[in-house]
Amino acid sequence: MEMKIDSTDFNLWDILSNFVEITEEERQIGENLFKEYKKNGYIKKTCKEMLLYSNGVIINFYQRLGKIRGTESPVKDRKDSKWMVESDFCFVNVRATGLNEEFGSLIHSTKILPLIRANAIHLAPFTEYTFNCIYAIRSTKSISINIIDKDLLKKGFGGEKQLKCFTEAVHLLGKTVGFDIEPHLSQFSAECVENPQLFRWIKLYKHDKQYLDYYLSYKDMLKKENQERFTNDIKNIVHKEMKFFDIKTFEFEEDDIEERMLYKKECLRKTIKLLISDGYWTIPSQIWNGAGVPEFSGYNFHHNYAKFHYANRNKEDNSHYAYNILSPFNFYNNLGVNSIPDDNNLPIENKEVVDYFCSIFDKWRDEFNFDFIRYDSADHIFDSTHKGNYDVPDSDRPTPKILEKCIKSSKNELKPYIGNIAERMGNEIDQYHSIGFDLMLGDDMCWKIDENLIKKSFWINEKLASINKDELKFSVIFAIDTHDTGNPFLSGEPLLKKVGEKITFLRLFISRYISCGLSRRPKYEVMGLSDMSYGLFESNIHDKNLTWVSNKKFNQMYNYIEDIYLSHKNILANGQIIENHINNRYCFWVIKNGKNILIPLISLEHENTTDIKNIQIDISKYINKNCSITSYDLYNQKCFKIERTNTILIEDLKYTEAKLFMICEK
Fold first, then answer.
1. Bridge partners of residue 79, in order along the sequence
2. Do the Cβ atoms of 221 and 203 come closer than 8 Å?
3. CA dist 194 to 190, 235, 245, 460, Å?
4. CB 599 within 8 A of CB 546
5. What is the DSSP-derived secondary structure letter of residue 340?
6. CATH classification of 72-175+362-571 is 3.40.50.1240, yes or no?
7. Could you write out the DSSP letters of every residue in 349-405?
8. Which candidate, 229, 222, 111, places its Cα nearest to that of 170?
9. Each residue of 119-158: pLDDT tens digit?
10. Please, which of 48, 477, 600, 611 could form a disulfide with 513 given CB 3.0 to 4.6 Å?
11. What is the Cα–Cα distance from 125 to 175, expressed in whole angstroms?
12. Closest alpha carbon to 322 in 376, 292, 284
């Protein structure tokens, strides 16, 4: 079935319904889901329950939603990006939303969006990738064939239209959507091959690849004139191959059918093989604590790849930190080799490369209505500058000045509201704010819920209050979990699986109540957290779906705390933490907004796991004869009035339990 699509039509979900035969039963289920969503503002189901529905059901759901809401961005009328601090975020990996042996697609993945109690979707990389790793990006332009619904593609509803359906779905739900931009691509990406001048190259002697070609030293190969010589040669080779293959680009084009896409991938593979046989390799990314670029160190003939030596700034081998399948954009010429720059020959910005990097977002902003960017690997950008000069790098990562330019370029006259997040697990709050970021990631997902985390959180609150002063404009995210906590360099296993439902619930509670007012910190969660599903790190680096746990008890707890938070949102939005009490076993703090008081209380993680007896909270200064006190039993999802006295007595606080009290005027 071939059907002409009018791209000017307002709602692509209506158009999509013409490509799928939707049964009466599917329409009825879609209507029931729509009614539940309209009543609650979300759907109370587990991820797997939603994913088991057919595409016909979810198409019908979004059709109905489109009758009462528009598909434009909910922040389209904002004049700046301050809305980012008001938002809460959830990470979604489309590929990992599949069931059994079948991976997720852009349409299939929209089934879980109505479950998510966050109003901003952080979409994992969705373009072509290599080595089964979605962060080893093969292209910044071509939507991955692996997340395109093949049946729809055959019918003429291609990948770009499917992605537009995804962003429309997010906007129909009143949410915003953004994605990752990385300062590197996979070692032989389509862009490396088509635009070799954007990257650094070496040329090996093709008759014995343990040696560099042309009798050049490695440092000489890095010189601008030799890089230009290599890239001109590569362009000639690639041009001849494209002419032979009868293609104009390795990138996917909108009208490409599946066979054409696969053909282009094979053409790219053969072209890469030819470049390698001729001795060409891109130089991979330096390690996080290194300087300059890594040094060529020989050739692995068994596995057929060029080897590099990675040293930290003390000249110690740190190769275990290397991601040697990634190559950085050549932002600067004149970088050292495992060393900081020479003061008499400082790095020079490569303007063409910087401009290209800054333009990557343009297509996705203008054609697909993405609302924000998260800059991946935006860590260590300040301690990788030369003697504190933000415009001169010590290593191959982008400088603060380059990222500042990218942030400015991300916005235009029509869309001044575009937001920007720095993926930085650190505390350089003032610095990241100074170059224009709206948010930085923070490192809360790496901490236990103990005394140190709470003290750090209140320190961050103070810093944010001093920055924001009169209005919200910058913050540090509180991450319950992130997509990479399963990395061996972090927790080494899925965080939710490691800590269990009780600690996960405690992290959720803290994310909602640890900050308020001008110190507001956005919640960050990951898909599947609502029912304890796990495995995102493995799903990012392998062809593997999330492990769908479908913990209905936790799902109820998740929605209960989100409902309670929603009822307190106005108190928190204009509230202030006026006192806190912290010891190594438990803590509580007082949030005041006019005549309304909230008192969160938590039992902290500690080597002493016994229950805590007879905690007393003096509230004499906050009560009068006209007030009432509500106690929230968070785990059992109940609330009740308690006697109005000068002291709240908690006779028995269970280990890692959370409680909440509210005092308000009758």
1. none
2. yes
3. 6, 7, 14, 45
4. no
5. P
6. no
7. E-HHHHHHHHHHHHHHHHHH---EEEETT-SSSSTTEETTEEEEESBSSPPHHHHHH
8. 111
9. 999 999 999 999 999 999 999 999 999 999 999 999 999 9
10. 600
11. 18
12. 284
Find the range with the poorest average confidence among 87-91, 339-343, 654-658: 339-343
Which one-letter amino acid corresponds to residue 177? V
User: Using CA atoms, how far apart are residues 608 and 598, in angstroms rounded to an integer?
Assistant: 27
| DSSP-based helix, strand, coil % in the chain, nearest 5 | 40, 20, 40
Which amino acid appears at position 49 of this protein?
A: E
- Please report, in angstroms and rounded to a whole number, the separation of the first and last CA atoms in the chain: 64
* CA dist., res. 303 & res. 575, Å (int): 60
How far is C-alpha 31 from the geometric centre of its chain's CA atoms?
32
Instruction: State the Cα–Cα distance between residues 197 and 238, nearest whole angstrom.
Output: 13
568-583 average pLDDT score = 96
Using CA atoms, how far apart are residues 62 and 57, in angstroms rounded to an integer? 9
Give, in degrees to the nearest 5, the angle at Cα 362 between 357 and 365.
135
**pLDDT (tens digit per residue) in 425-464:** 988 999 999 999 999 999 999 999 999 999 999 999 999 9
Where along the chain do its domains lie?
A: 72-175+362-571, 185-351, 576-665
Q: Dihedral sign, CA of 467, 469, 471, 472?
A: positive
CA–CA distance, 10 with 71 (Å, rounded to integer):
8
3-state SS class at 616: strand
Supply 605's token pair: 């993680």
Contacts of 128 (CB under 8 A, 6+ apart): 137, 138, 139, 142, 143, 144, 145, 190, 252, 265
d(CA 380, CA 290): 10
Residue count of the chain: 666
Task: Give the amino acid at 233.
Answer: D
CA nearest 603: which of 468, 488, 505?
505
Q: How much is the CA Rg of the chain, to the nearest whole Å? A: 27
Domain 72-175+362-571 shares a fold with domain 576-665? no
Please provide the DSSP assignment of 41-76 as one string: SS--S-HHHHHTS-HHHHHHHHHHHHHHS-SS-TTT
Residue 1 confidence (pLDDT) above 70 = no
Q: What is the DSSP string of 114-159?
A: GG---SEEEEPP-B-EETTEEEEES-SSSBPGGGS-HHHHHTT--H
- The identity of residue 369, as a single letter, is N
Q: How many CA within 13 A on the CB side of residue 271?
A: 29
| Contact (CB, 8 A) for 125 and 119 | no
Superfamily for the 576-665 domain: Golgi alpha-mannosidase II (2.60.40.1180)
DSSP 8-state assignment for residue 578: E
> Residue 466 corresponds to which tokens in the numbers above?
């001093």
